[in-house]
Amino acid sequence: MAQKTVLDLQKMKAGSQRIAMVTAYDATMARLVDAAGVDMILVGDSLGMVIQGGTNTLAVTLDEMVYHGRCVARGVQNAHLTVDLPFMSYQISPQQALASAGRVMKETGCQSVKLEGGARTAPAIQALVEAGIPVVAHVGLTPQSVHGLGGFRVQGRGKDAADRLIEDALAVQEAGAFCVVLELVPAALATELSARLAIPTIGIGAGVGCDGQVLVCNDLLGLDSRFQPKFVRRFATLEAPIIGAVQAYVEAVRDGSFPAEEHSFHDKRGPAVLARVY
Ligand code: KIV
Question: Which residues line ligand 1 (CB under 6 A)?
Answer without folding.
Answer: 23, 42, 44-46, 84, 138, 181, 183, 204, 214, 216
